[in-house]
Prior knowledge:
Strand content: 15-25%
Number of strands: 15
Number of helices: 5
Largest sheet: 6 strands, antiparallel
Shape: globular
Mean pLDDT: 50
Radius of gyration: 23 Å
Strand order of the largest sheet: 1-2-6-5-4-3
Order of helices and strands: HHEEEEHEEHEEEEEEEHEE
Distance between the termini: 56 Å
Helix content: 10-25%
Amino acid sequence: xxHHHHHHAAAASSExxxxxxSLAAELTAGRDVAKQLQLILSFIPPxxxxxxxxxxxxxxSSVAAEQATTREVLVQKILxxxxxxxxMLSTTPRMMPAQHHHHDPNRDHHDLGSGHDDGDxxxxxxxxxxxxxxxxxxxxxxxxxxxxxxxxxxxxxxxRKRKSIIPRWTHQVRVGPGMGLEGPLDDGxxxxxxxxxxxxxxxxxxGYYRCTLRNVQGCLATKQVQRSDDDSTVFEITxxxxxxxxxxxxxxxTAPPPSEPAMPAADDRQHEQLLLNFxxxxxxxxxxxxxxxxxxxxxxxxxxxxxxxxxxxxxxxAAMTSFAPPCSSVYHHSFSGGAASSxxxxxxxxxxSYGREQSTTAAAAPPVDFPFGNMDHLFDDPxxxxxxxxxxxxx
DNA sequence: GTTATTTGACCCGC
DNA sequence: GCGGGTCAAATAAC
Length: 395
């Protein structure tokens, strides 16, 4: 770039804005393509289950499984990068240098069966608010950021604090009396504590947790756990950001008490609930135009974050639901004309993604919120979903 | 060996 | 400067 660069011209601001828009569009497009790739990959059976045509190799099954895992993880990482980049873009112009660090394919294992007797845990309040997350910086602890000038954005002329679109919500959780159970209540995700702070005026310190897969999959979800001042059996847990990683929920223990009718506060809450319901192993049944049904087999216990692809009512391009590995084959459904092509699914089902529909073209309409319709009642008896292809929502 | 937690330092916005 | 949030070195746990 030997061109002469202008100084800080006032006009640069709008130019910058414009470039940001292009950037966002580009990133969105990239993310969308990555999702498609993820989908496509899910349709390609892992080498193990492939009919061995003339495989002269021993082809141990473990290797195959590892490959599948690896490629899935890779796509997941790409997706996470896009998501994170987008979220960074949506906060402050300031940002950190990219951090591409190559990590070994680390095996992630989370201790699910921590033998926690969850006992009496009641989720009480749900609250939404837009946040002003200071640090959406990507995970890598400042390792190699030292050199290159990242004061590019320091100028902050525009100082347009875009409101963060990072979701933030709070649960109040009460632990039963007499339980030694403390802060780290098992909410189905594995967290890693990265800090603790004494909060002014608070009796108990606040714990800071982040998703354990942050460095592996770039998942930026965090939570804070604050013990209530007066009632020491109540914990206020503030979640920040949705999980973009893939995690398995714990096999729900015995005696999940009559689940609360879960007030349908906001979208994100509904998304959470949807995930929870999926995780509990409900059946999902889709209905096509011609009335035939296709059954998403019970997702036993595995699930992967992400978003379902559902088309807006008048979608012209084919969108699809996707439930992906570890199924050897998955249901694939095109909702565009109602023409359904569905393949078989075996045991486990993962949700690749959920939450928002994304069009394939960058210039197309902005993401459409997932059409949940009125599924509140389903929360009471979350055993079966039916997706009405015509109506475009679960019923 | 590995990964998680603890804990004071550090950063950043107010 | 203050306070909340995060980092990272030391330490603990595995």
